[in-house]
Amino acid sequence: MATDFRRKEELSELTDRLVDTYQEIGTINQLGHCPLPNAMAVVDCLEDLKEIIFPGYRRRQNLHMGNVSYYIGDLVDKLHDELTQQIARALRHAEDMHKRCTEGVDFEALGQQQAIRFLESLPELRKVIALDVQAAYDGDPAASGLDEIIFCYPGVEAVTVHRLAHQLHAQGVPLIPRIMSEWSHSKTGIDIHPGAKIGPSFFIDHGTGVVIGATTDIAPHVKIYQGVTLGALSFDKDEEGNLVRGTKRHPTIEEGVVIYANATILGGDTVIGNHSVIGASVSLTKSIPPNTVVTIEKPSLRFREAS
After folding, report:
1. For residue 221, how many other CB atoms are within 10 A of its CB?
2. Exposure of 143 by Cβ count < 10 A (0-12 exposed, 13-18 middle, 19+ buried)?
3. d(CA 76, CA 118)
4. Cβ density class 275-296: b for 16+ within 10 Å, e for less
5. Among 31-45, 165-179, 254-268, where is mean pLDDT lowest?
6. Strand order in the sheet with 197-198
7. CA neighbours closer than 13 Å in the CB half-sphere of residue 284
8. Exposed/middle/buried for residue 61 (C-beta within 10 Å: 0-12, 13-18, 19+)
9. How far apart are alpha carbons 7 and 123 in whole angstroms?
10. CA distance 262 to 256
11. Mean pLDDT of the region 97-125
């Protein structure tokens, strides 16, 4: 009993020390009265959105034209309410971070406007995502059909989430697009910043280790393989040594380009001309003209008898 009492005292003292750090280190805790967006709620919204994008493939089966309207209508209703709340929280937090006066601002109404605008974009997004699925089938002879691609291809999963997150990013919604993209990154191994602009019929084959930076521009009908990095060459700083934000830091990939495994293309001024091919493990920091094939010279191999 005495040991149990001492342990409880030790745990109580530990709790006090931890709480003290919340005042000493205020940068990694959020203890105000205005809650942040809930990451799990955002992920739940993503799952509902994917159910709308790909009906019949995920949670609910036995859907047909006689019952799909009721099912999708219920999801849209649910998403309207949840997205309104989560976006309102994100907008309020962004204003608080910039120390702007928010007295009298109806964040709920602003969140609702943004949620409706986003939901209204879904029919067009479905058309673009359908082109991505078709591009995956057209670009992979191992694919047995579109169903396999929708069920199994991490590249399609990552690009689908990106298109949803990018729409919110383009609307100026803070924080929530990054929550979406980082959840997708953790699930697929593909890291696409929601700010990246990606044209239709985009296919990431295999996908593990792909990185696409925030200011990347990708034209239609581009195909990339695992390990590709579309990144920044350097980060400019202002006179006070702070990073300059809002500049073009990542490359532009023109129409019909193919980029093979582990290639690295860096820099905001770097443009890969249309219908070019970038070979495996190539590293580029300068532009190339259209219809160019870039490869590394074949390495020299050595063979010896095993001892």
Report:
1. 21
2. middle
3. 11
4. ebbbeeebebeeebeeeeebee
5. 31-45
6. 197-198, 217-218, 252-253, 271-272
7. 33
8. exposed
9. 59
10. 19
11. 88
